[in-house]
Amino acid sequence: MTDGLAFGSGDGSRDAVNRALGTGESLPGTGGFAGLIDGHLVRDVLGRVPLFVDGVAMDGSSIDGHVARTSLSRGRTIATDRRSATVDAADWSRRPTALDDPIPVPSGTVDLEPRWTLPEPAPVDDRGRIVNQLDQAITDATRRQATGAVGVAFSGGLDSALLAAHLDAPLYTVGFPDSHDVEAAQAAAEALGRRDDLTVIELSIDDVERAVPIVARAIGRTNAMDVAIATSLYLVADAAASDGAESLVIGQGADELFGGYEKIHRLDHRVESDTKREAVRELLASIPEQLSRDVLAVEAGGVRPVTPYLHDDVVATALRLPAALYGTETTRKRALRHVAREYLPESIADRRKKAFQYGSLVSRELDRLARQAGYKRRMDDHVRRYVESRL
Predict the structure, then answer these.
(1) Is the pLDDT assigned to residue 78 strictly greater than 90?
(2) Cβ neighbours of residue 213 closer than 8 Å, sequence gap 6 or more
């Protein structure tokens, strides 16, 4: 932390932020940043560090200029007029629990006003060259950020295995005994010759029950999807922290950057875009909301999150990928798979895997807990109602 700034994955500097303020450069070579610098409240273009302002203060006199709050389908954001908004030091925090009425600060803003947007570079035609550049960017970001007592959240899939291949660090996976993630992680660790590095934490429903109120308070959300994802991450982080880890490497951002979602390839009703490259940029806009949840969940587990795929240098390279390297509906993330084949067996590099909350079966058991507590599926938002009953 520097002068009220926090840096994503612990990688950044005051000079980099000042450069970004002066030039408008949105990817100045950090892992993200947020906080106060020279009296200005800033949050990077991808919102990689959680940042909130207090809605109670927003309705008072702590903000210069008119401020309006806008309700959104999955949260709230801030809209200001063109005059500069000044936020008192007591009216912002990186944790929602520190504020009476926490509202996320929009990504890419300075004093709540838009400042940075992602660049729109032309795609690189030379596929071999851009894949090599991506390989170098991922390698450098992983090794530079993952230092000291570090663990890797390892699900056995492409994203986490590629990061693990660059690090001599313990691997952690959580899941119920019959879960896909436990089986996949064990098979992948065996294929990598890393079976002794893998710690498997077999969960019970009591583990999920214990975690739910901790996670919901930490992330400031109670809906089923967010709580299930955050609970899975929290339980991995908690296990790593218990072993003495100070940071946890996670593969967040890979699906958004490299074409991992089916809807990118189908271009169906789930996206507004007409091309794959436009769809990727559309999904990148969801990262601030998702990553705020994930970072807060990992920190609640007692470790610092490290997100190599979301380092500025990796993002800048990924934005130059041609559409063909996003792959197809059946073979997604083609560029990342090309990189991975240099380090991983084909059985891992070509594997498709379930989402974390489903692969670990945490989502299933969270639903079970809600029903056991009397919140039946026929009720609207039955899991959310259960979670809120625990707070």
Answers:
(1) no
(2) 387, 390, 391
**Chain position carrying tokens 């970004």:** 20
Tokens, residue 44: 């990077």
Phi, psi of 151 (to 5 degrees): -125, 165
**What is the DSSP pairing of strand 75-80 with strand 67-72?**
antiparallel
Other CB atoms within 10 Å distance of the CB of residue 29 = 16
| 122 has pLDDT over 90 | yes
Domain ranges of the chain: 5-114, 127-367
Distance CA 105, CA 353 (A): 33
Distance CA 231, CA 245 (A): 18
Give me the CATH topology for the region 127-367. Rossmann fold (3.40.50)
Query: What is the pLDDT at residue 378?
Result: 84
| Structural tokens at position 114 | 């838009």
User: What pLDDT band is residue 77 in, cutting at 50, 70 and 90?
Assistant: very low
Instruction: pLDDT band for 62, please (50, 70, 90 cuts).
Output: very low
